[in-house]
Design goal:
Elements: H1 28-37, H2 43-53, H3 68-74, E1 83-89, E2 95-100, E3 106-114, E4 117-121, E5 125-127, H4 136-139, E6 142-145, H5 148-162, E7 168-171, H6 181-195, E8 202-206, H7 212-217, E9 224-228, H8 234-240, H9 249-263, E10 267-273, H10 281-291, E11 296-302, H11 316-328, E12 333-335
Parallel strand pairs: 4-7, 7-8, 8-9, 9-10, 10-11, 11-12
Antiparallel strand pairs: 1-2, 2-3, 3-4, 5-6
Helix pairs in contact: 1-2, 5-6, 10-11
This protein binds S-adenosyl-L-homocysteine.
């Protein structure tokens, strides 16, 4: 990969920090090119990489192996780490963080410990423009895309807080990842190559944006794709996901089939269960018909309550009946009981609020 300069050449000893790209997210090659551009020997690139990704340094001024004088010169070059603004632990050990970004915006991240795993649920946007009817994030509107450093930072923050290596990352926090494809792809590359998480341990979840699933397939990644389907037909899908209107379910599933053909990876379909809306046995049968012959897996997510709407979570018998129909139709299925409910950290509950303070 060609090493693009991270900063415009600095002529004055005091860099203009407003034009600087944060260093977090950069590869060893990029960091090496940058230190050389600063008149430093190439091996300092590897040192810098180690301090950013493994020692969690937040300011170049703190890198003790660097010459004092140079440290003072580049002290204002941003590394791109956030501040923990709020932290809440749910009884099941799930930790929700509100992270404050350089411009003051807040995003939410969730750390989910299970057995030997530590999964991080990362946000890709501040807010979300998709406005799914059942999701708290969409109710708060949309502010902006996150940069690659702001996505990677969430993983490092959870890793440092738990003092445990993150094993899995799911792009299922606030925002629609495929509306921020460039930064999401850059973050995936960094998490894989610089943080050291296997591609198969990364999952990108999308509600479906025309042509973007195909675009992702053409990257030939080994990441898992999760598609938030939530309904077996277009009419019902549009009712709960208004943004699905211009992108018929047939077109979405055609792109999903192409994804499977190109990558050889099966797709995980997420299906929220809303009592009396999309959870009837006939919906399960219709879903099974749609997915017949498809290399896929259905992940049922019983609805987690949010304030603004009065959907209900189906009871266990209804959920089990839905599972039974899918199994009878030979569809691979599992139920995801979200964790972190008590900290407002479960699927769909992410918003930039602190439960204890309203
Ligand atoms: N925009 C992406 C990433 C968000 S992932 C996407 O839609 O896939 C968050 C997952 O939680 C999605 O499957 C979403 O549909 C689901 N979800 C949203 N609100 C929920 C709620 N109230 N209860 C349960 N799941 C919810």
């Amino acid at each position: 990969m060609s090493a693009t300069p991270l900063v415009s050449p600095v002529n004055s000893p005091i860099p203009d920090t407003t034009t600087l790209t944060p260093l977090l997210g950069a590869s060893v090659a990029e960091l090496t090119a940058w230190v050389q551009q600063q008149g430093q020997p190439a091996y300092r690139g590897k040192q810098l990489h180690d301090w950013i990704y493994h020692k969690g340094v937040r300011s170049l001024a703190d890198i003790s192996v660097f010459p004092k004088q140079w440290r003072a010169t580049v002290a204002d070059v941003p590394i791109g780490r956030s501040q923990i603004h709020y932290r809440a632990v749910a009884p099941d050990g799930t930790v929700k963080y509100l992270l404050q970004l350089a411009d003051g915006q807040i995003v939410e991240t969730v750390g989910i410990p299970t057995d030997k795993r530590l999964t991080v649920c990362v946000s890709t946007q501040v807010g979300c423009p998709m406005a799914c009817d059942f999701c708290a994030t969409g109710k708060g509107g949309y502010k902006r895309n996150l940069g690659r450093h702001e996505i990677v930072d969430q993983v490092l923050t959870v890793q440092e807080d738990f003092q445990q290596r993150v094993s899995h990352v799911v792009f299922m926090g606030m925002g629609e990842p495929l509306l921020n494809t460039e930064n999401v792809l850059a973050a995936i590359k960094c998490l894989n190559q610089d943080v050291g998480i296997g591609q198969r341990s990364l999952t990108v979840s999308t509600v479906g944006i025309r042509d973007r699933i195909r675009q992702l397939a053409e990257e030939h990644l080994q990441v898992t794709l999760a598609v938030s389907l939530h309904a077996p037909n277009q009419a019902l899908r549009e009712q709960i996901i208004p943004s699905a209107h211009p992108y018929p379910i047939e077109d979405l599933l055609t792109e999903c089939r192409e994804y499977v053909a190109i990558t050889g990876r099966r797709i995980s379909f997420e299906y929220i269960l809303l009592a009396g809306v999309n959870d009837l046995p006939e919906h399960a049968l219709e879903l099974a018909k749609r997915l017949r012959g498809f290399q896929s897996h259905v992940n049922l997510i019983p609805y987690n309550p949010i304030q603004e709407v009065d959907y209900k979570r189906p009871n266990r018998d209804r959920i089990q009946a839905f599972v039974t129909v899918l199994k009878q139709q030979n569809i691979a299925v599992s139920v995801r009981y979200s964790r972190g409910l008590e900290a407002d950290a479960a699927c769909g509950q992410l918003r930039t609020s602190q439960k204890s303070q309203g």
